[in-house]
Amino acid sequence: MKARIKVGVLLLAAVLPLPAQMAVSHAPSAASDASSQMIAPEPGGKPVARVNGTVLTDRDLLREMYAIFPYARQHNGGFPKAMEADIRAGALKMIVFEELVYQEALRRKLSVSPAKLESAVREFKKQFSNAQEFNEFLKVECDGSQKVLRAKIVRSLLIDQLLTADVTNRSVVSVAQARAYYEKNPAQFRIPESYAIQTISVFAQPNATPAQQKELRARAEDALRQAKATKGYEEFGVLAEKISEDDYRVMMGDRRAVDRALLPPEVLKAVEALQPGQISDLIVLDQAYTIVRLNAHIPAGMQKFEAVQEQIRKQLTKQRTEQLRSALDKKLRAQAKVEEL
Question: How much is the pTM?
Answer without folding.
Answer: 0.66
